Fold this sequence. Notes:
It is globular, with a radius of gyration of 22 Å. The protein starts with 30 loop residues before the first helix and ends with a helix. The chain has one domain. With 260 residues, the protein is mainly α. It is 68% helix and 0% strand.
Amino acid sequence: xxxxxxxxxxxxxxxxxxxxxxxxxxxxxxxxxxxxxxxxxxxxxxxxxxxxxxxxxxxxxxxxxxxxxxxxxxxxxxxxxxxxxxxxxxxxxxxxxxxxxxxxxxxxxxxxxxxxxxxxxxxxxxxxxxxxxxxxxxxxxxxxxxxxxxxxxxxxxxxxxxxxxxxxxxxxxxxxxxxxxxxxxxxxxxxxxxxxxxxxxxxxxxxxxxxxxxxxxxxxxxxxxxxxxxxxxxxxxxxxxxxxxxxxxxxxxxxxxxxx
Length: 260
């Protein structure tokens, strides 16, 4: 028989292709073997997803440095990890918008009433915004640590993608149960951003490594560059909404919500 992926000639006893490394499938597709493959990939304690997820809590720099240095088998690659994160985030938003819409209301942190702000546009563009923010965050990180010249822009992009993917997966695991118990999505997300901040600081401190003074200065630069770049990005995004007419829809939806 031949490999179905690369047409390499195979021996009867081959379980993997000698050329492309693909697994040789000897059986007909059934629900049973599909379930077995799923459990091997996602539920087995030795699989790369769980190993990557657990290591990103304790040794995130090892996962990132291994990928940058060319290690591909030990941990889940950055694109797959980010894809899983986006899938889970989309599933979470579907559940929340379908069954817990009240949890998506913007809370009023300064009074006893809920602030009436329509955030549907934010949830509609959630995946696109994540894809836009990643290269921006990578650019900000590159500028903030440019003095040390250890990582190039692409390596910062890998770092930020791993960090954002991990944060997203953790958020889904935390937010859904809390919302089901009556919590507010915005409030919990805001608190989880503190986790993202300290986790990112810890990761970058380990990646370089930096002393406390160097780390604090880099964090200061990060906030400065973030403020400047995101003001520019927000102006561009608002201009886009005006040009496409979607800003008027957001304004009308907000007015309708206020009039109720």
